[in-house]
Amino acid sequence: MKVKICGITDIETGVAAARYGADAIGFVFAESKRKVTIEKAQEIIAHLPNEVYKVGVFVNETRDEIEKIAASVGLTHIQLHGDETGGFSESLSLPVIKSISFQGNEGLAALADFPCEFILLDSPKGKYRGGNGTVFNWNEVDPHLIKNHNIILAGGLHVDNVEEAIRMIKPCMVDVSSGVETNGKKDLEKIKTFIEKAKSIPVGR
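Given the sequence above, the corresponding structure tokens read:
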């Protein structure tokens, strides 16, 4: 099971997450309490292994701005967390992760032909698009709508529920942010424990 640690804002945490086995590191460039500057993202990414995905999270940003940030910091993937269209996704130069705030299978079905490498299933949006630390009802997801997609599961995951989440949704990757924090700050021990737990769970698709 691949693991994405999102909302990284400092070098120490990014390097530690990669050392513990994170397959992807997420950098939030949209409005969020975990928003990172271009300069800080550059610094962190310069210290990460080549094989780790460097994912930039954007919400309804312009194509030019996304491409400028991606090139300047060294992103490998673009995560679209807003109302971006399939045509917008196709216009980008990097692989796309398209996020959906799960509020029923109708919205999920609408993404069936969306041009992207991954679909990220997240909780319904709160103050910010994503990163709200709440769980949605995994039982409600129609498995037929996700079986042909590379699914990243997010939304309120932590070490105590990630096994159930993986067994139910069978994603190719799990994404965690607030679930590895203590008092709003990334907790290295929680990151380590979460990654070890997620990677210990055998999954058959």
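The CA atoms of residues 24 and 53 lie 4 Å apart. Try to locate this feature in the token string yourself.
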